[in-house]
Every structure is written in C-alpha cells, then in structure tokens.
Design a protein that fits this description.
The protein is an all-alpha fold and about 550 residues long. The chain contains 20 helices and no strands. The chain starts with 11 loop residues before the first helix and ends with a helix.
C-alpha cells in the first residue's frame, strides 16, 4: 500500500517535477514499447481543463447510466421469460442453487473493489511497468481465489447440496448438474475481475457499456433457445449460461490484450509480489467491513420491522429495497465514471487539483441525483400503480420516497468514499463508518417503540446518512486538505437553493393536474427544463457556461450568432 500522503497542497514546482518524472520516456526501448498508447483523451491534464474533465465524465456517466437502465429492462424481461419456460419448480431450483454458489463469491466481490483501486493508483502514477506488475499479481490472486472456491464448492458445497438442499428427489441429478455449471460460471467470473478492472481503470466505458448490454442479450438468446428443446431444460439453461460466461471472459481478455490503449500491460507474466498481494488483501478486508455493516443495517432493519409490525410491512420494505437498489445502481454509475480520474489525481500528488475536482463532483452529484429522484418521488404513487397495479402494500410509497432520499445523500457523499479509497488509508475510515451504519439498529428499535410508525426506520437512516456525509467530509479534510464548509456549500446548500423553484413548479403542476400519468409526464418535464435552466444560470461557473453554450450552439443557431 502506498505511504500516506501529506494532507496539504503541493507546490507548483514539486507538482511539475512529479509530472516530468512520470511522463519521461523510459530509457529502455522495450519498456517504451510496453507503455499504454492511450487515446486523444489520455493526454489531457484533467485538472488543468475542468470543463474537458466534466465533458469526459459526463460522457462516461451517460454510457454507464444507459448500460444500467438497458440491462435492468432486458433482465426483467429475461427473468419473466425464464420463469415461464422453466416453470416454478425448475426456476426455483436454479435460483436456490445459483444463490448458494454466490455465497462462495463474497471475498471476490471485495477483491474486485481492491484490485480496481490499486490498478487506478498505479496508472495514475504513470508507470506502465508497475501497472503491469500489479495486474499480474491481481491475475494470480484471482486464480488462487478461484482455486479455493472450487475446492470449497466441490467438498463442503457439494455435500450440502446432496444432503440438505430441499429439492424434489427426481430433480436431484439435474440439481447437481446445475450446481457444477454454476460453480464453473463463478470461477470464470472470478478470473475475469482483473480484466474488468483494467477496462474501468483505462476508462473504456464505451466498450464496457456496449458489451455489457451484448452480454445480457446473449443471456436472453440463451433463454429463447430453450424453445427448441422439450426436456432437460434446467440443465440446458445452466449450460448455456455457463457458455455465455466463457464467451464474455475471452472477449474481455482479448480486448485487454490487443487493444492499443492498454499496450502490453495486460499480458500475463509469471510475476509475484507478496507485499502487493498483502496490500490488496488488507484493503479488501477493511472495505468488506464497511460494506458488510451497510448490509447488516438493511437486513437488521427488516427484522426489527418484522418484530413490531409483521410480514405485511416487510413486503412494503422489500419493495422499497428493490427501488432503492435500482436507484443506487443508476447513481453509482456516475461514481464509477469519475473514480479513475480522482484516484489518478491523488496518485500524482496533485492535491490542489484534486480538491477542486472534488468540489465540482459534489455539485454534479447533487444535480444528477435530483434529476432522477425528484420526479420519481413526486409521482411515486403513479409509478407504483404502473409497476404493481392496485395491490400496493401499506407504507410502500413513503418507504420508497425515504429510500430514494437516502440514495441522494449517499450520492453527494460518494466522492468522500472514493477519495478515502484513493489514499489507501481505509482502516479507521471503515471502522467509524461501520459503527455509524450499525447504529441504525438500536435507534430503529427505540424510535419504533416510541412512535409505532414503520417509516420512522427510514427517517433514522436518512439522519444517520447525513452524519455519514459529514464524517466523509471531515475525513477528506484530514486526508487531502478539503475545506468542509466549501464542500457543504457546493454539494448541498447552493444546489438545494437552485432546485427549490423547479421543485415548486413541478409540485404545483402535480397538485393542479392530479395523480394521473399525464400529470407525471408534464411535471417531470417541467422540473427537468426549469432545473436545467437554473443550473445553467446559477449552478455553473463562467467557464462551464461557455462550454455548454458552445455545445448548444451546434444545434441552436441563435446561440451561435450571439
């Protein structure tokens, strides 16, 4: 793990010296040939041209958001078609077996986050040789994890499936086939992680988005091929799913090995560094603590709600969790888009530019989250009716609204999380974060006993999320010298003022037109148009406005003449 950086601005001379060092051509011609070639964007200094950075992050965010939405829509249709073709019993068997296998992937999920961070850091430092070595360590680490998963799966897992999994006796053979295919699928997904991380590190989001969509289309095609068969559909489906995974793995591998942007850094060599591996494992362990505490807070809240109100409220809470996860997936696409640039700035020790970048991320995060969440919260009853029909459990709407509010708070706090991951000093950060997240549980119990109002659990979560937001800001101040009041003003206070009037316009239209689909369309469009105008007039600086105007002038001749 890299040594801690001094929390304070670096002099211009030191910054220039750092850039000169990292940008010099290697003396070894062979090393020069292995260096990544990059593209037109890789030569930019994002910190020196903020609007260009905003343009690039905006484009990457668009790729990721479109990818997420498209995948969700196709996946919903695919799951429905799979259920119809397999039937309830076979679909249930596949779900429980695949879900059981995913238990073995817990460490892999945390390692993926760790590998991505370290690859981003090494690329930010500008050393192709060091990046290639880190990539090779990641490959060997994932092979070791896949081996451990395979051993555990073929011993403990297989024993459990054959002795304790509750499946019809005549389906036991098919269940074993599904289990073997699912285990092999997981191993290939584990091996794919370093290639996936490298694609994100080099910001090849266009390829990532397009091929992710191709992947779900391949899965849809695999399901539709079941129409050609009349028996053994469950085993055939598991085999096809495995086949798609193998194809995806080799496409990712070939792209990383042969695309010019990567140079030779993605070519595997037998290189091992114990210290680098231990750094990754330590980072993985502490990051897992934070993620696990968040999951524990969610599941614990569900149990507390069940204790006070029973399963009917759990149904509403479960539906709100699905809405919250969908919103999180879309908003986290923006976080994925800006993470490589933030980590690279820290790796180059350009802390002054890093701070300015974070201030901008704060306001952009608010604008993006508000654009998604405000129309949805205003029209939640209509959205739930379209989704669930007339049978909507009590409290579902208020649960969903409060969950989305929590999403918005998380979105403007996310730069603090990425900033901490960039520094590598994650132990104390994740300990405090875990304590804050788990504090939801005792406060949930106390508030529910005092109020007997189920949505109070999400009110508690929103308040604690605000505390987490302030904690993230305090950590950014300690680690990179961020000014807390400026970040609060840029990410929350000023954007709230800007959003107030557009929200009022949309609210009045909703009251006037009532709870109809036409009302939802009209008030959503009104909010977006007025909000966009207010952002342009009051939420952007002069340089950003000039860039937006130049872009719009291509489509609006009147702006070109002015």
């Amino acid at each position: 793990m890299p040594p801690p950086k001094r929390a304070g601005p670096i002099s211009q001379t030191q910054s220039n010296r750092k850039r000169m060092t990292t940008q010099q051509s290697p003396e070894n011609p062979e090393e020069a040939s292995k260096a990544p070639q990059g593209d037109a964007h890789d030569g930019e200094t994002p910190e020196g041209n903020a609007p260009e950075v905003g343009k690039r992050i905006g484009r990457n965010s668009l790729y990721m958001v479109v990818r997420t939405v498209a995948i969700m829509l196709v996946s919903l249709y695919t799951s429905r078609l799979t259920l119809n073709l397999l039937g309830e019993t076979d679909y249930g068997i596949y779900s429980i077996v695949a879900g059981f296998v995913l238990i073995f992937s817990f460490i892999n999920i945390a390692m993926e986050r760790s590998i991505t961070r370290f690859l981003m850091y090494e690329r930010g430092r500008g050393s192709a040789s060091s990046l290639g070595k880190m990539f090779n360590v990641a490959i060997l680490a994932q092979i070791a994890i896949a081996g451990c998963v395979l051993v555990a799966g073929e011993t403990i897992g297989l024993w459990y499936v054959n002795n304790y999994l509750n499946v019809p006796p005549d389906k036991l053979s098919a269940t074993n086939w599904v289990y073997q295919f699912s285990l092999a699928t997981l191993c290939f997904n584990i091996a794919k992680v370093p290639y996936n991380a490298m694609i994100i590190t080099f910001e090849r989001f266009s390829f990532y988005a397009i091929f992710s969509f191709v992947e779900v289309l391949l899965r849809l095609a695999a399901v539709m091929l079941l129409l050609l068969f009349s028996e053994h559909l469950l085993v055939i489906y598991a085999a096809q799913f495995f086949g798609v995974t193998v194809v995806v793995f080799f496409v990712y591998k070939l792209y990383c090995r042969h695309a010019a942007v990567f140079g030779d850094v993605c070519r595997f060599h037998r290189y091992w560094n114990r210290d680098k591996f231990l750094d990754m494992v330590k980072f993985c362990g502490w990051s897992t603590l934070g993620s696990a505490s968040g999951l524990g807070a969610y599941q614990g809240a569900a149990l507390i709600l069940n204790y006070f109100f029973g399963v009917v409220v759990n149904a509403a809470f479960g539906l709100s969790t699905m809405v919250q996860q969908a919103g999180f997936n879309i908003l986290s696409a923006f976080q994925t888009a800006y993470s490589p640039k933030l980590v690279a700035l820290y790796a180059r020790e350009e802390l002054e530019h890093l701070r300015e970048f974070i201030y901008r991320l704060g306001k952009y995060s608010f604008y993006i989250s508000a654009s998604l969440l405000v129309p949805l919260c205003l029209n939640m009853d209509i959205a739930l009716h379209l989704w669930l029909g007339n049978d909507v459990p009590q409290y579902t709407a208020i649960f969903c609204i409060l969950s989305l509010v929590c999403n918005g708070i998380d979105c403007i706090a996310a730069p603090g999380l990425v900033c901490n991951q960039a520094t590598g000093r994650v132990r104390n950060f994740n300990i405090v974060w875990s304590i804050l997240m788990l504090s939801n549980l005792p406060f949930d119990y106390i508030v529910l006993r005092a109020t007997d109002w189920a949505p109070a659990t999400l009110v508690v979560r929103a308040i604690i999320n605000v505390v987490v937001y302030l904690f993230f800001i305090w950590m950014m101040r300690a680690q990179v010298g961020l000014r807390p009041l400026r970040y609060i003003a840029s990410s929350l206070l000023k954007p709230l003022v800007i959003a107030a009037f557009p929200f009022a316009v949309a609210w009045v239209l909703r009251i006037y037109m009532g709870d109809t689909f036409l009302s939802a369309v009209v008030n959503s469009l009104a909010f977006w148009l007025v909000f966009a105008a207010f952002i342009f007039l009051f939420g952007l600086d002069k340089e950003e406005r000039s860039k937006v105007t130049a872009k719009l002038s291509r489509f609006i001749p009147a702006l070109r003449k002015s």
